[in-house]
Amino acid sequence: MNGWLGSILHVDLTDGTHSVEHPAAATYQAWIGGKGLAGHYLYPHATRSWDAPGMPLIFMTGPLVGTSAPTSGRMCIMSRSPLTGTIGDASVGGSLGIELKQAGFDGIVISGSSQRPCGIEITPGSVLIREASALSGMGTGELHIRLKDKGAVATAGPAAESGVLFANIVVDGAHCAGRNGLGLLFSAKNLKYLTIKGSGRVPVHDPDGLRQAREDIFRLIAASPVLLGELGIAQFGTGALYDLMNNRRMMPTANFRQTVFAPAPSMNAAAYKRRYMPKRSGCRGCHILCKKVARDGTLIPEFETMSHFSALLLNEDIDVVTKANSICNNLGMDTISAAATLACYAEMEGERLSGERILSLLDAIGHGHGIGRELGQGSFRYAAAKGEPGVSISVKRQELPAYDPRGAYGMALGYATSTRGGCHLRAYPISHEILRKPVATDRFSFAGKARIIKIAEDCNAVVDSLTACKFVFFGASLEEYAKAFTAVTGVETTTQELMRAGERIYYNERIMNALNGFTDADDDLPPRFFEDEGSSGNDMRIAPLDRKEFLRTRARYYRVRGLDQKGMPVSEKAAQLGLQWTA
Amino acid sequence: MKQLVGKYARKLVDAGLAEDGAPVVGGLDDELVWNRRDARCSELAKVFSGLNINALLFSLPAEPYRSMIDYLASMATVTDGVIRPTDTETRTILHDLPVVEAFDAGEIMAALERRKCAVLPGHGVVTWGMVSPEQAFVFYSSVCFACFVKFMSDYLADRKSGRVSRRQRRVMDTVMQHIDLLPSEPPALMRAPFLSERAIYHAVSQAGRMTVEYGLVDSFFGNVSLRCGDTLYISQTTSSLDELDGCIDPCPLDGSSCAGITASSELTAHREIVQRTEMNAILHGHPKFSVILSMDCEKTDCAFRGQCHIRCPESRFIEDIPIVPGEVGTGPHGLCHTLPPAMEGRRGVIVYGHGLFTVGREDFNEAFAGLLAIERLCQETYLRMVS
Ligand SMILES: [Zn+2]
């Protein structure tokens, strides 16, 4: 095999054993790697509770990782989401994926639960399970400093130990496997850390072909204003989107009660640049370097964090945003869910949270103190318990990111159909609705969006399986990556063949969710978006979404996706994709 | 969807890329719609069912494209069945153009599985879109442009080495019947000073529209900018120059906002030019003859042959107009490094295999006149060289 290493490591923490499996080439080809292969390993356990010892926590890389194909060393981490109850996954960068490949594995499947806090240490030829009681309660920053000599590091922080349902896994102290609360899987397994150091090489079938594909990809990255343009994310980080979202009147403000935030122009990416004079940083092997780090090592917040910790909470102090980001990272919790849960709390309490209060509430959530214990269950459970579920702006109990769906109708559908709950990354229609890539579509129209969302979900499922960085796809496309895939693996493929694998991967996720009782009732948005107007102005009306139109579009989506009217899988379609479903 | 497929079918005709009644454009959400009924729709519908796409465009190109494309396709079928133009658009977006010999869904799908177009000699060109019929339209027009440039470039080279075939000459005769000489007089465009922001937007829009109307861009690609005070008003990425209303980004030159993240990929080059020179208006199009002549180099023994678009070491000119290497955007070989210095003291610069940039002091009149005059010069030069 080329690209793939043909080895998956299985670790059982209950009895402290491990074994290596060598899947058939056909398994790799059907599922590609990353999210696809992880879904294949999750399927037999899909209906277990997330904290059952038999529920696996899966780390999976793709065939391109560890080669010179642009991948940013990404990998997929998957299990069942404690927050949503759906499948839970995250694509994460840093160096973990590359080290794993260099250690000789395509993935790790961790099951069981350790009696005492433990760590897994992987080096070439050795897998050790170490006692780690001494590390309990430690923040992810300190953990990283203590463990980084052991190679790439994945940890959970205090939030996971406190049972926060949106706890993250943090890679290399800076890259978050966020959303979905996968950090809790660490605490369920009594796992404190995973370190990997490799030394091997990933075999490549056709180095010349790979060089050519890489050149084509780099050319497209260079041609993308969003990526390498002087106002793009290489220069300003993902916060480069901040001004645009406010100008398009779709910046979620005051818990999605408004869509424009007046102080935004003074809290944009340029303001962070002036204030912190950050350096560029990023994932291993990436030349876009979208992460920004201040001179003292403080991470500059990403776009979603910038937006939700300012506009959503009506906070006008960028230092508070940066501090909130640091607290969340160190405690190991998702910034989107944390900010949105606070915004929900603020609305219910009729309180405008001061900067100080925001920071102290975050601390209370991460450590499970006082009101923090309730808020750590996420906005939906908190609001529902108080009889006001509609104040939680979430889909499948996961808080929505920083794109108001009233300003981008494809995004409205994409939020609803995402298999991991409220998430912008499954279909990322912002690409064409706002950023004009590959061409612009009408953001205030549902026309054509059903199929567009379905195709994009399939495409991104491939990206998360290769595993590559979604940002690169503002410039490049699967056409160039299909070339890279063939050059690396020696397996002939085409754009469309990869897309068919993407369809299989996504349908498998729908099946797992259906097994857990998810139906069309869950593919929906909070009532606020259908009832209330956003902040119209400047000749731009941000109307409430037309519920009938939304439901018609969702029905179209189900037809295009091959689901029944209730959004449930259909056995013929499943069989066609090589999957199983019995209603 | 129905409206979009109609719009882009019409645009192909308006752009002279297809004859009236020729384009068949389909759009698919959960149901398939066509811009019109056509006997070939059932075969094309099969293509839809096999591919994850939402738009499909099929048309016989209008002359002179048709003859050139058929010629290139037939030459390709005796080798590996692929047309390989070397202009920037092909290099960046299309990569190459597979030829399919029969109008057959299976064969068309096999080509579209991996590429953005399929060329069917005698039948036409098929392209697709994944989010909009606009993509299919853009790919189709890129195919026409790329094939025009390739045919004319190859002809020129073969002519110089005395290897023009009889068939090539016949195609060239057809081409000649369909080439209109450019007008000599530029239009009167809005004059500076621009007293309101609205006037600025109008001026940029108008310049874009006239560039298309005068045939100085291929398929609406290009970019336009105007500096007023501390702001550069520039057309957005993937915008059509004939439809710039609502597609112009104001970019503050002090970098205080990223709202222009949707601006043209050549923003940096434009900004550098207005900051380095006295010029405030910039027009950029892809006029065909400027592109063709930029690639006409007789130095066959050059060490950088094959990499001219990024590494050409020569100082090349067409009269007073420099030709520089450089790729789209801001990469290490980006034209943002080569174009702005070359523009100092010049009315225009051609980027190798890509297009022409011209400048004006206050408004677009001078820049437009430059664009028109330089492309005319290139057209006349070319025609003289092959006659
Ligand atoms: Zn251009």
Secondary structure layout:
The complex is a heterodimer of chains A (583) and B (387).
Chain A lengths: L7 E5 L4 E5 L3 H7 L2 H9 L14 E4 L14 E6 L6 E6 L3 H7 L4 E5 L6 E6 L2 E6 L8 H8 L4 E5 L1 H4 L7 E3 L3 E3 L5 H6 L2 E6 L10 H16 L10 H4 L5 H6 L21 H8 L2 E3 L9 E3 L9 H6 L9 H14 L3 H15 L5 H13 L3 H5 L2 H8 L8 E2 L2 E2 L9 H9 L12 H4 L15 H18 L11 H12 L5 H21 L12 H4 L15 H15 L9 H6 L7
Parallel strand pairs in A: 1-6, 7-12
Antiparallel strand pairs in A: 1-2, 3-4, 3-6, 4-5, 7-8, 9-10, 9-12, 10-11, 13-14, 15-16
Helix pairs in contact in A: 1-2, 2-19, 2-21, 7-20, 12-14, 13-16, 17-19, 19-21, 19-23
Chain B lengths: L1 H13 L9 E5 L3 E3 L6 H10 L4 E5 L5 H13 L4 E2 L4 H7 L2 E2 L6 H8 L4 E4 L3 E6 L3 H28 L5 H13 L18 H17 L9 E6 L2 E5 L12 E5 L14 H10 L4 E5 L2 H7 L13 H4 L4 E3 L2 E4 L10 H9 L4 E4 L3 E6 L3 H23 L1
Parallel strand pairs in B: 13-14
Antiparallel strand pairs in B: 1-2, 1-3, 3-7, 4-5, 6-7, 8-9, 8-11, 9-10, 11-15, 12-13, 14-15
The complex binds zinc ion.
Quaternary structure: heterodimer
Indicate the proportion of strand residues of chain A: 5-15%
Named CATH architecture of the largest domain in chain B: 3-Layer(aba) Sandwich
Distance between the termini of chain A: 37 Å
Helical content of chain B stands at 40-55%
What is the CATH superfamily of the domain at 8-196 in chain A?
Answer: Aldehyde ferredoxin oxidoreductase, N-terminal domain
